[in-house]
Design a protein that fits this description.
- By secondary structure, the protein is α+β, with helices and mostly antiparallel strands.
- Strands 1-2-3-8-6-7 form a six-stranded mixed beta sheet, with helices on one face.
- The two termini are about 15 Å apart.
- The model has no long low-confidence stretch (mean pLDDT about 95).
């Protein structure tokens, strides 16, 4: 059985997808870009601010579904510029300090709305 997760505290989907789906004790969060949900656009201009907003969005979805960052088992990080990796990682490690999730991180040609970072997240209980 699957459950659609939706919260007004994270950006609405900008296409035909759900913010997250829970199935059999696993939560699949769609890639989050740094849209501030209260204004509906990307406000931060640097990688640090954008990564912080992405984590705020992920946190809102985790909370709505009844999960925490401790439940995260896999992250996939997409960067528009691989030279932003170290700065993104500085923000990332604020959220995962022990028992860190598995992770992939790589550069892509471009991200939606000109974002510098997008993060997909999988959590399990």
């Amino acid at each position: 059985m699957k459950r659609i997760i939706n919260t007004k505290n994270a950006p609405a989907a900008i296409g035909p997808y759900s913010q997250a789906i829970e199935a059999n004790g696993t939560l699949y969060i769609s890639g989050q870009i740094p849209i501030n949900p209260s204004v509906g656009k990307i406000e931060a201009e640097d990688i640090n601010g954008q990564t912080e907003q992405v984590f705020a969005n992920i946190n809102a979805i985790l909370e709505e579904a009844g999960y925490t960052f401790a439940d995260v088992v896999k992250s996939t990080v997409f960067l528009s510029d691989i030279s932003d990796f170290a700065a993104m990682n500085e923000v990332y490690k604020k959220y995962y300090q022990t028992e860190c999730p598995a992770r992939s991180a790589f550069a892509v040609k471009a991200l939606p709305l000109g974002a510098l970072v997008e993060i997909e997240t999988i959590a399990a209980k």
